Amino acid sequence: MAKYLVTGGAGFLGSNIVESLVANGDRVVIYDDFSTGSKKNVQDYKQTEARIVEGDVRDDKLLRKAARGCDYLLHLAGRPGVADSVRNPEEGLQVAFQGTLNALTAARDLKVKRFIYASSCAVYGESPVLPKEETMLASPYNPYGAAALLGEELARVFYATYRLETVCLRLFNAYGPRQATSGSASGVIGSFCEAILRGENPQIFGDGKQSRDFVYVSDVVDAFRLACTAPKAEGEVFNIASGSRMSVAGLITGFTQLIEKEILSDHKEARPSDVRHSLADILKAQEVLGYRPRVNIAEGLTKSLVWY
After folding, report:
1. Half-sphere exposure (CA, 13 Å, Cβ side) for 125?
2. From CA 25, how far away is CA 49, in angstroms rounded?
């Protein structure tokens, strides 16, 4: 049995990770300010399973107190959403810097075994080169990507300077249960599911030909758990994705086949700073972490629609 601190533990990804850890018999401290995370995601745990600490990661003293006695620190706290980062870059960058610095110093001083950082494919920017490999030059296209890269650099420095074992996971487009369907933390698949279930037309920003590497949330959870203990992973960066891509318009086709009913979509103006295409090379994660995505897009869409 191990003890984990999960910052952002009430959010979409964080709460799914917490659920998996608790099911495994591990002890968890959930740290979240509930700005985007939901108390509904974590309210049913017994105190002996998961303890909730409500706070901002920029509160160094509270975060340090929460991390005491933990074996692993999984840092997912941040301000999600490319559009929000464009409108208000200051807060996202402040959280990325001060929050991640606080989490790293707490992990270092409290002798945490390993620090896992949730980064983003947004660090690759608008480079047309596909698939994205970890050796490519990081060139963020928006403040969201810049914030993710800033956190990566802090983790790299703490590994190089203090030998704190850090692992950075560059997450591609995760989807599945508990993802918000509106607001800054929403995802396109969740939004489509809600629209379909309401009998409304899903909204597509731009022409719908933009493509993404969609990865089901349970595969992301597997990656975080593997990253905690995989030998030779420390100090490294890994793409976490499915290794395949689908266009946004292709999602509509997938849902049409799933429910056996024509789905019409409404098109809106493309959002600023959205990248056009995204696809990951996941060979490094497969070889070092033992990562194997298990849920393909057809199965994932079905699971998602059933959950919503």
Report:
1. 11
2. 8
Radius of gyration of the chain (CA): 18
pTM to 2 decimal places: 0.95
The answer to whether residues 8 and 54 touch, using CB atoms and an 8 Å cutoff, is: no
Bridge partner list, 115? 73, 166
Q: Pairing between strand 211-212 and 246-247?
A: antiparallel
Instruction: Return d(Cα 208, Cα 257) in angstroms, integer.
Output: 18
**Strand, helix or coil for residue 123:** helix
pLDDT tens by residue, 181-203: 887 678 899 999 999 999 999 99
Structure tokens at 2: 């191990």
- Give 87-122 pLDDT, tens digit per residue: 788 888 998 899 999 999 999 999 999 999 999 999
**Distance from C-alpha of 262 to C-alpha of 121, rounded to nearest angstrom:** 32
Percent of the chain with pLDDT over 90: 83
Contacts of 4 (CB under 8 A, 6+ apart): 21, 26, 27, 28, 29, 70, 71, 72, 73, 74
Q: Which residues are part of the catalytic machinery?
A: 144
